[in-house]
Design goal:
The protein is mostly helical. It contains 4 helices and no strands. It is rod-shaped, with a radius of gyration of 37 Å.
Length: 228
């Protein structure tokens, strides 16, 4: 009977050790997924939020440069030909196109896609207005060119900047959501790690108790029947 009891206790201890191993394996798998999720979130924050935010700054800078360049040409007698002005505007346009291409390659949520499409349309519309203004100047109708610059040109330009600001705000909101998601993943990881430690301590205590209770009394102390 005593050996049967010892075997039962050892089986219980082995079972509890198996439970600990399963918990460790399960926690390792969950932790791997959590860490992968955190890594992806930080990659997205850098590649899809931080870098595009910098591109937006350069995009806005080039749009203002174009606006100021054309305004200076229309107001001041700099001696620069319309062709020279057009070449400078084309240089800004090429920079803007490269920034737009880079931005398109990032991950965009649905609202960002709509806002970005509107922005592209406004940028294209403003570029067409610039060509129309320079064509009026070449035709000797500089005053009409100025009126177009101050009228429809100003309206489209401000609309473009509005879309840029809207896109920046969306970037900020999505970035905050990614940070919140990352913090949630970290909290889950810490929770499972704490549970594993607590369970390991509890089960370890139970195992020690089982081992202690399964110790065999010294076989020499077997009672008077042994003398017979």
């Amino acid at each position: 009977m005593k050996w049967s009891f010892v075997i039962q206790q050892k089986l219980k201890a082995a079972l509890l050790l198996s439970v600990i191993m399963l918990l460790i394996i399960l926690n390792s798998v969950i932790s791997r997924f959590n860490i992968q999720g955190i890594d992806e979130s930080f990659d997205s924050i850098y590649a899809d939020r931080l870098i595009p935010a910098i591109d937006i700054v350069y995009l806005m800078e080039n749009l203002y440069n174009k606006r100021l360049l054309l305004e200076k040409y229309l107001l001041l007698d700099t001696g620069r030909s319309p062709q020279d002005t057009r070449r400078q505007l084309d240089l800004c346009d090429r920079t803007i196109d490269s920034l737009i291409t880079a931005f398109e390659q990032t991950y965009l949520v649905e609202q960002e896609s709509r806002s970005f499409l509107d922005l592209k349309n406004r940028i294209g519309e403003y570029a067409r207005l610039e060509k129309a203004i320079l064509s009026l100047v070449l035709a000797g109708r500089k005053e009409e060119g100025w009126e177009l610059f101050e009228g429809a040109g100003a309206a489209v330009f401000h609309n473009t900047i509005t879309h840029l600001n809207e896109l920046t705000n969306i970037q900020s909101v999505v970035g905050k959501e990614l940070m919140k998601h990352s913090k949630s993943e970290v909290s889950i990881f810490n929770f499972y790690s704490t549970i594993q430690i607590v369970l390991a301590i509890i089960i370890g205590g139970i195992i020690l108790s089982l081992i202690q209770s399964s110790k065999i009394i010294n076989p020499r102390q077997s009672g008077p029947g042994h003398l017979n």
